[in-house]
Structure formats: structure tokens, C-alpha cells
Amino acid sequence: MRFRVCVVSLLMIVIIAPQIQIVNADTEIVLNEAIPSLEPAVFGNMTPVDPLQIEISDISVTEDGCIFIVAHCPSWRYCTGPTEVSLIAWGSDGTIMWSQITTHYDRIYFGVCNDENFVYVTGSWNHDILVEKYTFDGELVWNTTTDMGQIERGYEVQVMDDGTIIIGGASYEDELPYIGDYILLAMNQTGHTQWSYAFDRYPSPQCDSESLYITTGTTVQKWDSRSSVIWMNECIGEHFGCVKDRGGYTISSIQVVEHYDKFSLLYMNDITSSSELNITSWNVDTGEEKDSSSLRLCDSTHNLFNCVGVDTSVDQNGMLWIIMNAKERESWYLMSYNVTSESTSIYKVFDEQWCWVQLEMGPYGNAYLALFSDTYGYTVMRFDSNQILPSTTPIASSSTTSLTPTTFPAVELTDLQAIFAVAFGVAAFDLILILYLKRRVSE
Is 3 domain-assigned? Predict the structure, then answer.
């Protein structure tokens, strides 16, 4: 009788257990004095024309290690008069090659990217989407604006291998409640618009060698340069990165930027403060979700730190890199994160005086940062691959330091309820079955 009860109970568990959703693991990284500090291999800076704070908008790096950054003044400065608008080119050794720094009432740069021969910039000019094309020597090839009858801004620019220029932006009314649309448009190499689409949420674009990837906060999509959708999946993520078909990620957080109006001059997707980053990796060919996990920074007693100023990039091997400021530690940390193995290499790179940090993983596995401080002004840094990847063993897994991430299964309340429900159901069934069999035996 007991044997039959055990067999039936085992069958019930086999049938019901797969219905319980498996929750991915969390990774907690303990920040302590054992974390190595790094000095940049290359450092370059430039004093701004305006002594007040500047916001670094974007960074782009060439295959030769040259760096392009765009920057502008905070939005609250616009009502005080003309503000500084900057496009600066730095050599691979940190020296300034050239700069376009002007003051304007109604001109602003938000995004920059490059291909093998040219630099592309987007922003706003006279309330229209602005796109400019420069040579690597700083010569303006052309500029163009797109007027959709309202106030328009270009926030991000990407270029595909076939030369298609992709711009993510917005078009909205110049009065409350700022009703409008988010825009994704494509231009050819002469600046003529090829196609454009409107979205309810901001379509953040990223490109690899052949394809365009778009995240809207609710979906991640893969398009070709002719705007044909290759695949689309639902997701919740504020960032997406992909490099040479090797790695795609969405990253969501507990808190994201909340602006007075949804078409703020700041990026739609900046993470202002969060104690947890939820990271999902995607197969960029099929759109299938590969792995997901949560990343947290804490002290030795597992008190979580708020992470601010988060930016991400993907290196040429498909590894995700993150720069963030652990506010309570008053320090910035650069880390790589493998979602599948949950291994992490982490380094302290500078203190809290720096702001508006932008990260770009460049050639040869080097990490490039664009940032600003009141002391140094516009600044670029390069950390070489032999600094940030000194061995094949991730620092977070090394037995020689106390920096070992605590990894544990994250079981949510709904999952506990499901487990208890299954256990109670199996126990109740066993009891009923035992009583039934005993009764039959007694008869």
C-alpha cells in the first residue's frame, strides 16, 4: 500500500512541479577595500567656455581609438541666454584633434556615432531634428534638418554598414501637455530621408553590421535597413546594446528618469537611482531570450547601494560592461557582467566628483569614458584591456580577494505560494489515498 501511495505521489509531483516558474538567480557584489582601483592609460581634458556644469550627451570611438563626444548645457540654462554646444574630437593619446564649440539659443547636440570615414551628429536646431556629417578631420560635409510641423529633436544616431543613418527622436506640440510622438527615421549618405515611423514610446536604436535593434521599453525589435521587421519580442528594458552580432541585452531598473514632460531634453532612458539592475541577454539572430538575472551592489552586511549614472556598452566579444556610481560609496565602478555564469570583474575607476559619464567599449577590448567635472572640464579616459581583463579568471570569482558575489536563488512570494500549494495538495492527496486504501483493506 505504501509503495502505491509513493508512486502516485511521485507522479503528482512530476506533473505539477514543471508548472512552477523557475526564477533566475540574483547576484550581489560586495563593495569593499579589496576592489582594485585603476588609473586610466589615457587621460585628456579641455576647459569649457562656460564655467558652469556641462552635460556629456554621447561618446563614439573609431577603430583607431579616436574619440568623439558631444555635450550641452543643462536644460535649466536655456532660459538664461545662449548656451554652449560642443563636438570634440580626441586622438588615441588623449590630445584634442579639433572641436566645434559654439553658443546658441536653439541648437543642441544629443547623439554622435561614426563609421570608417565619417562622424554623424544629431540634435535640434530651430526646433527641428538636426543631423550633421563630418570628416575625421572636422570638415563639415553636410547638415540637414527635418521639420514635421511641431517641435522636433534627435536624441540618438546610429549608422549601418550599408551607410543608412538611423535617428531616434521626438516630435511634439509646443504647449502643455506636450502631445506628440516619438520618431524613428532613416537617412541616406546625402542626408535625404528614406523612411520614418512614429512610436508611442521612445525607440532607442542600436546597430550592428547588418541590422537595426530597437527597444521601446515594452518591446525589443530587429529590423533591416529597409525597415522590415525581422523579429519582435516583448520585454521590459531601458537599454539595448549589440556589437557585431555577438551580444544583445536589455536592462531594466526599479527607477528610471521621471521628467516634467516625457519629451525632456535628457535621454528618455537614463537610470537615475536604483538598487537593482535586471539584465536579460538575447539571441540577436532569433530574438529568443537566453538568460536573465539581477545585479545588486551591497556592503558586507548586504545593505544595498543606490546606483546612479548607469551607462552600458557591449564589447566585441559580446560581453556586457556597466559603469555606475554607488552613491553611498561616493565612487564610480566599471564592471563586466556575464549573465549566464553571473561572473563579474569590477574595478573602482574614480570618485564622485565626476558626472554625466558615458561608456563605450572600443577596439581591442579597451574601455572609453567621456565625463565632466568642475575641476577638469570635458574629459576622456581610456582603460586598456590588459587593465580590465588581467586574467581569464573574473575578479569576482577569485579566491585571492574577498570580492566574491553572493549568488542565491531569488524566490518571490508568488513562487513560495505555488510551492506551498503543491506541497499541501500532495499531502492532502496522500492522506485521502491512505484512508481510502485502509478502508478497502479493512473491508
Answer: yes
Residues 6+ apart with CB under 8 A from 105: 78, 81, 82, 83
Asked whether the beta carbons of 9 and 432 are under 8 A apart, the reply is: no
- Domain for residue 13, yes or no? yes
- The arithmetic mean of pLDDT across residues 204-223, rounded, is 88
Q: Is residue 7, in this structure, part of any structural domain at all?
A: yes
- Any domain includes 303: no
pLDDT(359) > 80: yes
Q: State whether residue 10 is helix, strand or coil.
A: helix
Count CB-CB contacts under 10 A for residue 63: 11
Peptide bond into 405 cis (omega under 30): no
> What's the CA gap between 38 and 381, in Å, rounded?
11
CA 112, CA 109: separation in Å to the nearest integer?
A: 8
pLDDT of residue 205: 92
In angstroms, the CA 110 to CA 127 distance is 13
b/e 371-389 (16+ beta carbons within 10 angstroms → b) = bbbeeebbbbbbbebebbb
What is the span of the domain harbouring residue 16?
1-23+412-443
Strands 193-199 and 180-187: antiparallel
| Grid cell listed for 179 | 502631445
Helix axes 413-442, 2-16, angle to 10 degrees: 150
Number of domains in the chain: 1
Phi-psi category of residue 141: left, alpha or beta, with phi > 0 → left and psi -120 to 50 → alpha: alpha
Looking at per-residue pLDDT, the higher value among 166 and 78 belongs to: 166
3-state secondary structure at position 425: helix
For 375-389, write each residue's pLDDT tens digit: 899 999 999 999 997
Q: CB of 325 within 8 A of CB of 332?
A: yes
Q: What is the DSSP letter of 126?
A: T
C-alpha cell at 290: 537566453
pLDDT band at 54 (very low <50, low <70, confident <90, very high): confident
Q: Is the peptide bond before 177 cis (omega within 30 degrees of 0)?
A: yes
